[in-house]
Amino acid sequence: MxxxxxxxxxxxxxxxxxxxxxAAALAGCVVEQPxxxxxxxxxxxxxxxxxxxxxxxxxxxxxxxHWNWNGAQYVWVPGHYMERPNPGARWEAGRWxxxxxxxxxxxxxxx
Length: 111
Fold this sequence. Notes:
alpha+beta; 2 domains
């Protein structure tokens, strides 16, 4: 009986210690509130034709250019190479999606 109680107490202390370690690790972290996607009434212009130069190395992936809304008008953001975070990662480029009576930008992401 003593061994069971001691083992249970050790488990609880270990859990409490884990919580304290996590809290210490997160101390000072800034948590951002999710941003609401801005709905742009005007449709984005068609994408510009771009030439992707050869990649500098096999870890680099091309992120095509896209139109960005600056609050008043669309501005072209040229394509560029990004480093793949791991060998199996696949880049899904950002895109404009028709939504809520306008257009919303969906950020690109690694899959």
